[in-house]
UniProtKB/TrEMBL annotation:
Record's keyword terms, sorted: Membrane, Transmembrane, Transmembrane helix
Gene3D superfamilies: lambda repressor-like DNA-binding domains (1.10.260.40)
SMART domains in the cross-refs: HTH_XRE (SM00530)
Region of interest called Disordered, as start-end residue ranges on this chain: 85-123
Pfam name, any one: HTH_31
Comp. bias (Acidic residues): 97-107
Transmembrane segments: 133-155
Name of the molecule in the record: Helix-turn-helix domain-containing protein
Key word Transmembrane helix present: yes
Gene Ontology MF, one: DNA binding
Length: 159
């Protein structure tokens, strides 16, 4: 019984958000396809959001509220609570992963990043890693430059 109560307190924010989003969609009478067309998020994305498998991005919730004519403040407050809950759970999981099976502390160099973490760039609200454009373009140019140099060497060695 206590474990069920713990689980409910851990998932309360996400469950409340999902329940509210489902109610609002049902009240609007929109299908997932229609919701996808009107919000610019795919039908499959809305399926994941409304099942609770994935937390919808902030912008998706804004678009949803606009389409179903819901109270944005209330729904966004639920989204923020769900977002904090997921962050707290991810933080709790990363703290646990820093100890190995014997309970010994794992050094920072041995630690493997958990979902949502990255050693390069920062993560956005949707959990994707944000890498600066300069890093991407610089890497591409460096690769092209090295390829040209190596190609020129190969050509010169065969002449």
């Amino acid at each position: 019984m206590a474990r069920q109560e713990d689980r409910n307190s851990e998932t309360g924010g996400v469950d409340e958000l999902v329940t509210q989003l489902r109610r609002l969609r049902a009240r609007s009478g929109l299908t997932l396809t229609a919701l996808g067309e009107r919000t610019n998020y795919s039908k499959s994305s809305w399926g994941r959001y409304l099942s609770g498998r994935t937390l919808p991005p902030y912008q998706a919730v804004l678009a949803f509220c606009r389409v179903v004519e819901a109270d944005q403040e209330r729904v966004l407050a639920l989204w923020e609570a769900a977002h904090r809950e997921r962050a707290r759970r991810a933080s709790h999981c990363s703290e646990r992963s820093e100890e190995d099976a014997d309970g010994d502390a794992v050094s920072e160099s041995e630690r493997v990043p958990v979902a949502g973490e990255s050693s390069v760039g920062a993560t956005g609200r949707d959990g994707r890693v944000r890498v600066p454009l300069g890093v991407v373009l610089g890497s591409a140019l460096l690769g092209l430059g090295l390829g040209c140099l190596l190609g020129a060497r190969v050509v010169r060695s065969h002449v």
